C-alpha cells in the first residue's frame, strides 16, 4: 500500500476550497502542490497566494513540488505559505546539498525530484540527507501525459540503494499514475503516489483516492 498525494493542479480552480475539503475528507496522505514558473518547465501554474489559500483550508500536509529555476530564492516563502515538505529539482540546483540543508533549517521535509532523462545514480551523495525522492514518470509541465515505462527500473534502483545503505527517504512518483500501474509501482518500492487528472476527472474522486491507496 502507498500513500496518495492528489495533485491540486488538476482541481477545479473555481471550486478550490471544495476540492481541498474533498481531499481533507478522503484517505489521502498529502496534498501535492505543483509550482511552475514557465521557465524550468513550459507551463505556469500558480504561486504563493494560491499555496497560502490552499493551506488555509488544508488538513493534510502540503507536499510542495517546485518546478522552477533558482528555487533557493523562494524556499522560505513557500515554507511560510504552508509547505510541510519542499521538493526541488536536481536539474535546477547547482548546489543541491546547500539547498537541501536550507530546507531542513526552515523546518520542512527536504525532497529532490528527477526528470525522466536523469539517472537516479546522480543522487548517490545526497540520498542520506533527503526525506523524499520524487521520480517524474512524465516530462514535467502538463497533466494528463502518458506514463513512461522506464520509471519502474528507476524506482527499483532507488529501492535497492535504500535497502543496501539503510537510507530512510520515501520514494514518490508523479505522472500518469492510475489503477493499472499503481500496483506495480508499489511492488517496486513506491511509498507515495501523486495523481492529478486521474483523481479529479473520476466520478468519485474520494473513492478513486481510496482505490489507489489499496493498490
UniProtKB/TrEMBL annotation:
CDD domains: RPE
Pathway the protein acts in: Carbohydrate degradation
Recorded GO MF terms: D-ribulose-phosphate 3-epimerase activity; metal ion binding
Keyword Manganese included in the entry's annotation: yes
Cofactors that this protein relies on: Zn(2+); Fe(2+); Co(2+); a divalent metal cation
A GO cellular-component term linked to this record: cytoplasm
Binding site for substrate: 7, 65, 141-144, 174-176, 196-197
EC number: 5.1.3.1
Positions contributing to a divalent metal cation binding: 32, 34, 65, 174
Cofactor binding: number and manner: Binds 1 divalent metal cation per subunit.
Active site: 34, 174
Keywords tagged on the record: Carbohydrate metabolism, Cobalt, Isomerase, Manganese, Metal-binding, Zinc
Enzyme class: isomerase
Superkingdom of the source species: Bacteria
One of the GO BP terms on file: pentose-phosphate shunt
The keyword Hydrolase appears for this protein: no
Reaction catalysed by this enzyme: D-ribulose 5-phosphate = D-xylulose 5-phosphate
Family note: Belongs to the ribulose-phosphate 3-epimerase family.
Purpose of the protein: Catalyzes the reversible epimerization of D-ribulose 5-phosphate to D-xylulose 5-phosphate.
Record's protein name: Ribulose-phosphate 3-epimerase
Organism: Dyadobacter fermentans (strain ATCC 700827 / DSM 18053 / CIP 107007 / KCTC 52180 / NS114)
GN (gene name): rpe
